[in-house]
Specification:
4 strands; 147 residues; alpha+beta; two-stranded antiparallel sheet; two-stranded antiparallel ribbon
Length: 147
């Protein structure tokens, strides 16, 4: 049982180890159209809406070729798309853009800090809204200090 888990982990980690140039340029093009920033699921939806397939040569060059998975192990949701999965987008592509200082993750506070509602028992409740995290392309002047 533990050997199968270890094997599964190494297969999955191999899937998410390298950011392809096609995936990087796709996310940059999506973020460039939205200067206000986007949440990760929104970036993923827009990427999937663009019917782009990645060629086998680029997959092989980045170590992301088709691999045989053990029985019962789910495969990558979109193996022929540059953005293979939400995990690949968040953990590889966006982190790569952040490391290269091309994109920045920022917090947008909620417009209404609390949400007041009546629960099933008829009691008045308050729920604190936290806001959301978004990604945007880093400005060319951002991060530089002026004297």
């Amino acid at each position: 049982m533990f050997a199968a888990f270890k094997h599964t982990h190494t297969l999955w980690s191999r899937h998410v180890s390298t950011c392809t140039p096609t995936a990087r340029s796709l996310v940059i093009s999506i973020l460039s159209n939205h200067p206000e920033g986007l949440r990760s699921p929104q970036i993923f939806e827009e990427a999937l809406a663009k019917n782009i397939t990645i060629d086998a040569d680029e997959l092989a060059a980045n170590g992301l070729g088709q691999q045989r998975l053990p029985a019962g192990v789910p495969g990558v949701p979109y193996p022929d798309h540059p953005i293979r999965s939400m995990k690949y987008l968040k953990k590889v592509v966006l982190e790569d853009l952040k490391a290269q200082k091309l994109a920045v993750k920022f917090h947008v506070p909620s417009e209404t800090p609390t949400h007041i509602y009546v629960n099933k028992k008829g009691k008045l409740r308050k729920h604190l809204r936290q806001g959301e995290w978004r990604w945007k392309l880093r400005d060319s002047t951002e991060g530089t200090e002026t004297p």
